[in-house]
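Protocol check, entry for the methods section draft. Step 1: assemble the input record (protein sequence plus ligand SMILES). Step 2: submit for complex structure prediction. Step 3: store the structure tokens unaltered in the notebook. Ligand used here: S-adenosylmethionine. Step 1 record:
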Amino acid sequence: MTQPGYDALADTYAAMFPEPYQYPIERHAAAAFAEAAAGRPGRTVDVGCGLGHVASDLAGRGLDVIGVDPSPGMLAHARRLHPALPLVDGDASLAALPDGPIAAILARFSLIHVEPGEVRSTVRAWSALVDAGTPVLVAFQAADEPGPPLAFDHAVAPAWRWHPDEFARVLAEAGFEEAWRIVFRDKDYRFPMAQLLAVRD
Ligand SMILES: C[S@@+](CC[C@H](N)C(=O)[O-])C[C@H]1O[C@@H](n2cnc3c(N)ncnc32)[C@H](O)[C@@H]1O
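Step 3, stored output:
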């Protein structure tokens, strides 16, 4: 299980993104997610954890975090940068995750790399793994207009951006009800970005 694009560019990526968040609003979304996950039994799973910066930040906020990523190159950096962080080589299906309760799931800019039809089966798989009340935060490049996900020319790997309503609908079909969303736009970036928190019914 590999992610060739991220493997090839892992060193560049690590040099370009030394911090967990590019925008303050992302830090606030992560803090609100950490609050929703706090006190729940089990591990918080960072799906597509990349360099592990966000997982480490969440661990610093008191969560028991495990990172999952299919790129050995990104995981190598995560292990170097955050040696105390538990990490698993695996994809968004979470099939490689060790058994045990899941407190919460975070997937920041990783489901964009999963083919849209597979996103539906992926969130259904999550739904089967978690208890009622489990929060899920997804972050993604957004589409302005409602409609099906749009492929875009991501610099590293094939990617799709979603209208937040469409992502919320896919989550709802899998049993995750939207609690809140933040959609923001930076003047120097070409797409809006969405952070969407949903909770398992
Ligand atoms: C843009 S990076 C985001 C890293 C991190 N989540 C963050 O917020 O900084 C995307 C990550 O998703 C991972 N990824 C790609 N395909 C994936 C898949 N099918 N399942 C889970 N993660 C995937 C990549 O290896 C990469 O580390």
